[in-house]
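Aggregate trends can hide what the representation actually does to any particular protein. The sequence in question and its structure tokens are set out directly beneath this paragraph.
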Amino acid sequence: MTMAYFRTKIRSGARSGIGLAALLAGLSALPAHAADTAEAAAETADAAAEAADDASAAADDSREDGIFVVGTRRGTRVLEAASLIDLVSREELDQGGAITLQQSLFRISPSFNFPQGSAARVGGGATRSASLRGQNPDLTLVLVNGKRRHGSVATGGTFPYGGAGYADINAIPLAAISRVEVLLDGASAQYGSDAIAGVLNLGLRENDSGGGLTATLGTYKKGDGETGALSGWIGTSLGGRGFLNVSADYSRRGSTDRSGPDIRPRYFRIADDGSLLPTNSTAGTADPREPYGRDRVGQWGNGQVEHLAVLANFGYDLTDQLQAYGWVNYANTNTRSWVNPQVPSSPSNIRAIFPDGFQVVGEYYDDNYSAVGGLKYDAGASGRFDLSLIYGRHARDTHNFNLVSPSYGLDSKTDLYSGQVTAEQFTSALDYDLDIDAGLARPIALQAGIAFRHERWWISKIGEEQSWNHGGVPILDGSQAGQPAGWGGTEQGNAPWDVTSGNRQVFSGYIGADFHLTDKLLVEITGRGEHYSDFGWTATGKFSARYDISPALALRGTVSNGYHAPSVGQLAYQSSGYAGTWNHSGITPEPNRTRQVTPGSTVARALGGGPLEPEKALNISAGFVLRPIENASLTVDVYQIDVDNRIVTTQALTGAVVEAATAAAGIPDYKSITFFTNGLDTRTRGVDTLARYGISLGQDASLDLSGGFSLYDTTVQRVRANTVSSVALFQRNVILNPELGTPEYKIVLGADLTVGKFSASLNQLFYGKYTYVHPTNAANDEVYGAKGYTNIEATYRLTDSTRVTVGANNVFDTYPAQFIAANQVNGINRYSFIHPEGANGAYYYARLAVDF
């Protein structure tokens, strides 16, 4: 067998969108493009492998009969799989005005979620990842061409999700991707830690000729968030024995502002003798400036983002049996966010510098590097080998502008470098697969492999001194004049005493086999053993089965256990901060220094913490595949995911018990403590439905209807009790967010019409009810009802190689409900972080694409 076994040559995929199926009873007869007939089901494994090459190479990746490899490590048709696979084609990725992979998948895949609006630096900051089936993003494994992608420096999730160390999927240029395979099933046995909720496998372009260039311009209806993007790729042949494909994306997106007038009292009240009183005092009179300028306090919306991503991918046949392959990737993202505005009377302000208050502008500088190299060897009847080396690194620098360091008084700087955090990962792996003719309906497909992985996370640079130190100057004026000023900058940097690092080594091995016991019965079994240098041995397994009752109907189901080790960042992270305990009497205790301690530290143990344990999961799913007529299909899969030992962060623990613990540890200045701990056990039950129906309307005309429905319900089965101390570990939002903080369902409906040179698409999204859970007061919870968002697009092909597109997302300018006043804690934030579509309104765009 030649290296055609390994090669894939990409051409454009079929147009489709995903959407609802099970919502309307009539859609049960609408399903997806017909896959192969029973004859295809009886092909030999060699023929299937060759079909995988050709179809993968052709990349005619309609959602139904496209070829995927994730979860099987060999070509299999989507509707012939034992687990649910959502296959997203290149053409689908191009629709909808998206300029990043995360934006594109969010509008296409019903099981894919991640809030699209993030007003300030929250959780993962600039890191954009994926949540599948309502799980934290670090429970979704990201692969590139089947190889593990390195994680990020993130030590927290993005509201309302938790998690840490998840991969940044936007670091891969959208132009470089030929298709995305979404495995919606537990896959820890096949791929190791992180694959509890599922797997994203990003297939890279492997063209040996051609290219494309796309330019996009867009803006929101409000006139802000202006976006310009340029994306391109080019493929070339390497002497007829291989390919080189180079892709790049560049984009710049302006910030948006959906803030409201500041509802807080801003200036000190003035006593009869001219002295200054606290802002909420009933004595004296209001500052004459109080009624003015409330609508100019600051901005609150999406941050400003500049993004560059470049990837070069190659494959070269050294001989008929041996191929070299690899890719290198670099991405830089510069994100500017506007943080909570400080009122003029704030003890964190220096009024001689900012007499009317200030709003910190934070900047993240994210650099992602990765390099992959490998050799594939086809030994014929002895099997096929794949040896790979993978390196990835993510570094984040943080710089804050428009702020002060209060304890330095008039010598305070107004911009401060906060430091750098870095994470890296090195993986070496050897994979093997073999077809064994055992007299069954098809040869047994054996897969096995071994791997070594090294992970490291560390604080690589401290911040400049004023970002973390105390300058010795008290509060200069106001009702707290003479009282101690806070430590560090308004947004604090990495302090020398917080410099830390962590690392681990992981050795693993797996073996699995696919058995076609009959023409109708497929059984897949996989087992994996892993040894973690910090957690020891673990074993995971997966059993899947599929039975084809007829060419039109098949049943399938899986059961597996999963394992997710805490990220190295969660194990090593520690930080210091400052939280004022100012009261409105003008009298304050000593400054309240805060600290996040490592989970196994003396302080954490004294307060009910301890060394982190891995998260462990049990996945069960069952479903059916229906192909009632040509060009139609429906898949329905129900599932249950139990996750034990979910890692969460405690609330800020305070009181006499805390002060005794910090004093005993030799850090008595710290009055408030947090740490990571295994706090929750959860159970998620849900259903995923995909449907499609393709209709021919005559020559050069077609209508493609699609639907997807994802429903899930998470319940907290256990909350960890504090058996060591009397302090309560968690605020109520930590416990209730998994149950209430995400939409109950997501529906995606699509209609794609093509008539000659004209095409148009309709993408309709619906989200179920979800709740903003107040950290301490149930009376301030806000329930957001179901909402729909409509996206439309029209394309005209000017020539065979040139297309022009116009479109609108959220065409009806839909907004979520605004916060009640009690939840506008920074005075101007009218909208929550957790809205799935954000809160920016209608977005309009135009795109010009040229192929060559």
